[in-house]
Amino acid sequence: MKTDRFPYERSRWSNLPEQAKRWFEEVETLGPQNVRARLAQTDAGSAGAIAIGELQVVTIGFAQEWLAWHDRKRDALEAERHSHHVFWTSVAAWAATVAAAAAVIGCAWAIFHK
User: Fold this and answer.
1) What does the alpha-carbon distance between residue 9 and residue 19 come to, in Å, rounded to a whole number?
2) Do residues 22 and 55 touch, judged by C-beta distance below 8 A?
3) Are 70 and 32 in contact (CB under 8 A)?
4) Taking the CB of residue 112, how many other CB atoms lie within 10 A of it?
5) Residue 113 lies in a domain
6) How would you label 7-29 residue by residue, b for 16+ Cβ within 10 Å and e otherwise?
7) Model confidence over 58-114: pLDDT tens digits?
8) How many domains does the chain have?
9) What's the domain range around 14?
10) What is the pTM of this model?
């Protein structure tokens, strides 16, 4: 199932939907680079808690889960961009081949019909 928003309601790291929503809004506000940097400052396990942004307690596992979701979303977008790039590059290559063939045929036609 493809989702454009992190499904914080289903996160196993919070039993309270409102709490998970606040955590989600905070990590979204801060962005992946800042959340990743904050997580790098601790060596606690996933069940531990850290302060992120204005929130004093966010479960590390929630932040890790959000980062993993964000990274998968980013990777999927990058793969899609890459496939579009490959497609349009091959279209351009075929167009150049057709143009070159037309030029060769045109020159040969002009030479043989003089």
Assistant:
1) 10
2) yes
3) yes
4) 7
5) no
6) ebeebebbeeeebbebbbebbee
7) 899 999 999 999 999 988 889 889 999 999 999 999 999 999 999 999 999 989 887
8) 1
9) 8-81
10) 0.67
